[in-house]
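R.M. (postdoc): so does anyone remember the format we settled on? I'll just put the structure tokens first.
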């Protein structure tokens, strides 16, 4: 599927997948050699190029990137290889061994690379999809309680594209979630994901008519509930990047979910980065047995927009420990919304 940001065909769909791990498995001719990440890379080393399968071991990709950045004066050449930043494969999935990378399948998150160096690295390292600057704060909104001015933390795409997919596995097969990585925190698949498994267990247990993903993020839990047959899905988030990503996640899972029509009512890119007021309907997806509504706003004001039926609500806030102690709000939710509530 073509990326809605860069226009390139690098977004994987459920129908493209056979055995997901095969995407990054070495061919019989690959000869991966694991490097010591605490050591530098010599500028005189001849780093291995792509195998005849046109893929290259991730450590060799990072070593090439190291040499480019040393040449550009970004690093001195004494720093360890690990100092470059955090590499994220695209798509992200749980692997039992380091990956062999095809072209444009790696995003590097770093706090030391300039825009000009990022462009040069992109041109010289074909496996690189994009370079993202992140400070040492998690991207996203801070406190979004009513009456508070939220703090906003965003990364910045330096060059290339930062839109990537993560593949989460559930009892109905892969759930593909799209993220604009500069603006969302890293939540890499862990094989058997406890949040995804929690949704599966709760849906099987309560058989809800309505599933409310109150802190939806890029849509992982709401889409999982839809795969398990919940006909009415409500997703809501205050953060513009989460809503944008959830729209893309709905699109990429469209065929698997049985969606026949997707309607966009408002351009989320023109909305405030954080909207903590009454939820605004941004996207609606419908099919013969599925109806998804995606809102931008605070879940506290969702009540009047919720369909009737047996309800199951998941709250997956970033600060779960604080949220669990909010007995007053949870009591309010039980009284006004009703149904079952769980925190994964």
């Amino acid at each position: 599927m073509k990326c809605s940001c860069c226009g390139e065909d690098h977004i994987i769909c459920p129908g493209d997948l056979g055995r997901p791990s095969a995407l990054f498995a070495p061919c019989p001719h690959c000869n991966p050699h694991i490097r010591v990440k605490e050591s530098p890379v010599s500028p005189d080393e001849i780093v291995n190029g792509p195998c005849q399968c046109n893929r290259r071991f991730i450590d060799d990709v990072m070593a090439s990137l190291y040499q480019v950045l040393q040449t550009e004066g970004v690093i001195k050449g004494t720093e360890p290889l690990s100092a470059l930043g955090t590499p994220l494969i695209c798509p992200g999935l749980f692997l039992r061994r380091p990956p062999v990378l095809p072209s444009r399948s790696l995003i590097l998150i770093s706090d030391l690379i300039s825009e000009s160096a990022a462009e040069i690295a992109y041109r010289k390292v074909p496996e690189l999809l994009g370079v993202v600057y992140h400070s040492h704060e998690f991207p996203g909104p801070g406190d979004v309680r009513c009456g508070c001015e939220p703090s906003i933390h965003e990364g910045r795409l330096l060059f290339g594209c930062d839109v990537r997919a993560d593949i989460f596995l559930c009892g109905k097969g892969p759930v593909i979630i799209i993220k604009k990585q500069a603006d969302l925190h890293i939540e890499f698949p862990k094989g058997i994901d406890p949040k995804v498994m929690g949704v599966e267990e709760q849906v099987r247990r309560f058989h809800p008519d309505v599933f409310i993903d109150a802190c939806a993020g890029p849509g992982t839990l709401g889409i999982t509930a839809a795969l398990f047959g919940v006909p009415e899905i409500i997703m809501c988030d205050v953060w513009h990047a989460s809503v944008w990503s959830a729209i893309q996640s709905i699109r990429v899972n469209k065929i698997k979910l049985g969606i026949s029509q997707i309607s966009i009512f408002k351009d989320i890119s023109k909305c405030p980065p954080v909207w903590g007021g009454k939820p605004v309907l941004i996207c609606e997806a419908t099919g013969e047995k599925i109806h998804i509504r995606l809102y931008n706003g605070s879940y506290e004001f969702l009540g009047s927009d919720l369909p009737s039926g047996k309800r199951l609500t998941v709250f997956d806030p970033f600060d779960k420990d604080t949220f669990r102690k909010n007995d007053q709000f949870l009591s309010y939710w039980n009284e006004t919304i009703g149904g079952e509530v769980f925190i994964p």
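R.M.: ...and that's the designed sequence above, right after the tokens. Also worth knowing: The longest helix spans residues 58-71. The chain has two domains: 14-160, 193-339.
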